[in-house]
Fold this sequence. Notes:
The chain crosses the membrane at residues 12-29, 102-126. By secondary structure, the chain is mainly alpha-helical.
Amino acid sequence: xxxxxxxxxxxxxxxxxxxxxxxxxxxxxxxxxxxxxxxxxxxxxxxxxxxxxxxxxxxxxxxxxxxxxxxxxxxxxxxxxxxxxxxxxxxxxxxxxxxxxxxxxxxxxxxxxxxxxxxxxxxxxxxxxxxxxxxxxxxxxxxxxxxxxxxxxxxxxxxxxxxxxxxxxxxxxxxxxxxxxxxxxxxxxxxxxxxxxxxxxx
Length: 202
């Protein structure tokens, strides 16, 4: 598998673009992780609320138990403490719900933050990079063919991929020259294809 062109300028551009993409991805991944830490820091109030509610519930339940031990009026004395115990349970439930919301945001927001830049890379840089690697690999595999056959295949690819203005610069009828097996035109078209990919001749 060939990753970079033979011509120095084209290879430099490819390496630079790869480095920039890697840096872009790294920056956004770090930003997503930093955002996650920031959101998780919001979990502390929910934890305190939950702990306070549970502690309050335990204390009120203990007070109600002590009140029930009072002869005759024990149940009446315990009733207010039992009611306040429910308030503590509500606080604990609210704290738990808050913590669940924070955990959900700590997962969702970083994923959204990093997904959009990665999708941009996948939609622009990656297809072009993969296409070049495949075309360069296919071109290298032509080395096993006879020179004439290799030139004709490269020339045919040039007819499909090189800009018409450059094709006309080789021959006024490049397709006709290819069909007529005009050796000079075919070799020139093959050279255009190699230059398009930034590859040296065989």
